[in-house]
Each structure stands twice: as C-alpha cells, then as structure tokens.
Amino acid sequence: MPFKLATDGQAWALITGATSGIGAQYARELAARGFHLLLHGRREAKLRVLAEQLRTGHGIQTEVLLADLATEAGISRVEQAAAGLSGLRILVNNAGYGEPGLFHERSLQSLTDMQRVHNDAVVRITRAGIGHMVTAGQGAVINIASIAAYLPGRGNVMYYATKAFLNAFSRSLATDLEGTGVVVQSLCPGFTHTEFHDPGRRAHFDKSTTPRWLWMEVEEVVRISLARLGHGKVIVIPGLVNRIFAWIGGHEWLYRFIMKRVRRK
Ligand SMILES: NC(=O)c1ccc[n+]([C@@H]2O[C@H](COP(=O)([O-])OP(=O)(O)OC[C@H]3O[C@@H](n4cnc5c(N)ncnc54)[C@H](OP(=O)(O)O)[C@@H]3O)[C@@H](O)[C@H]2O)c1
After folding, report:
1. Which segments of 76-149 are extended strands (E)?
2. Domain for residue 2, yes or no?
3. Is residue 7 in a domain?
4. Low-confidence ranges of the chain (pLDDT < 50)
C-alpha cells in the first residue's frame, strides 16, 4: 500500500523537539492534515500554547510530553509514550541542538549527551513506536539530520558525526522496512531560521556574519520534506545551495581545496 499523508481521523504524529523551529512547523503542517499530535519538548509553557492553538484551530487531539532526551529517564518516557500510542503513523525525530567547542576541550559528558539526544533517543523511540506502523501497514519516520552530515565540522565534531549517523541509520532502516508500507526520510536542512542560533542558545552566533542566501525558512524546509515523503528517496536536502554544499562535502579533496582558499581570504 503506497504511503499517503492523509489521515482517517485516528492517526497520531509524535514530534520530538516540537517547541519551536522545524518541529513546531511539522506540528502545524500535520495538524492541518488532521493528525492528532503528541508534542514533545522541554519548555512546557510554550509547548502547551502550541498544543492548544492546534487543538482548537484544527479540531484535533493534542498531548504534551516533557522530557530531556539527554537523560535516561527522559528517553525512557518518550519511548514508553511511543510504545503506548497504537495510532502512531508519523514519527518526527527532530529534537537537537548545536554546541560549539573543540573536541579535546569539551567534557566527555557534553559529547555523549549530544549522542544521546541525536542518536540514542532516535534509535530507541523509533524502535518503540515502529511496530504500530508496521502492523497498520502504513507510516513514516522522519529523522532531522543536517547538511552537516556531509561535512567535516571543526569545532562541533559530535554534531557533524551524530547527524551523519542519522543518514546512515535512515537509509538502512528504509531497506529493512521495504514492503511494509512504512517509509523513512532523513531530512538534511542547511541554515534555517529557528531558535537554534538565538542568543542564549548553545549554538548562538551572529547571523549577520553569514550571507542571507544561505538561509531558508522553516515553512519551505518542512513543505519540501512532506512533499517528498514516500517518493523513493530517503535522504532529502532542501534547497539547491544545500545540495551543492553536500555534494562538495562528499568529495574530500574538493572540500579541502575550497576551504583552504576561503580561509586564506
Ligand atoms: N536551524 C538550523 O539551521 C538547522 C540546520 C540543520 C539541522 N537542524 C536540526 O533541526 C532540528 C530542530 O532544530 P531547530 O533548528 O528547529 O532548533 P530549535 O528551534 O532550537 O528547536 C530545537 C528543539 O529541540 C528540542 N531539544 C533540544 N535539546 C533537547 C533535549 N536535550 N531534550 C529534549 N528536547 C531537546 C528543543 O526543546 P526545548 O526548546 O523545549 O527545550 C526544541 O524543541 C535539530 O535536530 C537541528 O539539529 C537545524
């Protein structure tokens, strides 16, 4: 049975990191298509406002799930919620953050925390919820990676490495799920206007130092993701500029050649 995004009024979507940015935009898009929403995050007040807006605006059911995915207890809470949600048809593994700093200067704890949020949580929540989709013969897992998956990342090693894992995980998972009606996507956005780089966030930087043409809006990123879901390609890179970056990053000699010249300027 080919994957269809339309719901019969019984289907649920679980979105991790739905409080803001890309996750919140998936929530708005999926609510508009009639999915009930289990919205995960940590900032309770903001998450509840979004849940209430979408519930009243679209006549859907919404629930809020608070958990820090850098902790065992947090992952376990979301895992249990996914396992108990028999109507689960779309899982968006989106929660994530950046944290600049040289690998050898960062604490081991901070490095492995990122691995938990970006990788361990994704594997465990997916494993907990996927059975419902396979049984129903329909569903989608969307993992939010990054074009960082294609690049060597000085000063943010674990971010680049954990995002690369998501691409590899998604491609192989898609092959395991062939013929089940469950599709997988690994979305690789480039610079996107969200709260990710805001002041006070760990990945904060001055956006005016990067050209405007590098940036995309969440609406466009999520629209592209949902439009390409189930159309054969697991890895989706929104935006031509991002696809070029990913292509260059896939050719180590070319990437080094370009970066040497950029750094000399
Ligand atoms: N923005 C970009 O330029 C960009 C580019 C490529 C990929 N991405 C990826 O896109 C995804 C979404 O990020 P965004 O840009 O939309 O940023 P955002 O607006 O900062 O949203 C990040 C979300 O992740 C949640 N989160 C972060 N750490 C968490 C933790 N330890 N436990 C639970 N939840 C956690 C946040 O929850 P709370 O706020 O409630 O704590 C928030 O809902 C991330 O995986 C990011 O790596 C972003």
Report:
1. 88-93, 139-144
2. no
3. no
4. none
CA–centroid distance, 2 to ligand 1, in Å, is 30
Give the pair of three-digit tokens for residue 74: 């947090």
For residue 129 and ligand 1, the question of a CB distance below 6 A is answered with no
Which residues are the active-site residues?
159
Ligand 1 atom at minimum distance from 68 CA? 32
Please give the pLDDT value at position 1.
52
Q: Which residue's CA is the closest to the ligand 1 atom numbered 7?
A: 146
Within a domain: 126:
yes
Q: How many domains does the chain have?
A: 1
pTM: 0.96
- In the block, tokens 């006070």 appear at 200
Listed as own residue / partner, the contacts of 43-49 with beta carbons closer than 8 Å and 24 or more positions apart are 43/19, 46/19, 46/20, 47/18, 47/19
Residue 38: domain span: 12-264
pLDDT at 254 (0 to 100): 87
**Is 195 touching ligand 1 by the criterion CB < 6 Å?**
yes
Is 5 inside any structural domain? Answer: no
* Rg of the chain in Å (alpha carbons): 18
Cβ atoms 249, 151 nearer than 8 A: yes
Ligand 1 binding pocket includes 68 (Cβ within 6 Å):
yes
In a 3-state reduction of DSSP, which class is residue 47? Answer: helix
Find, among 15, 106, 99, the residue nearest to 64 by Cα.
15
pLDDT in tens, 172-205: 999 999 999 999 999 999 999 999 888 777 666 7
User: How much is the pLDDT for 3?
Assistant: 64
Residue 62 has a pLDDT of: 98
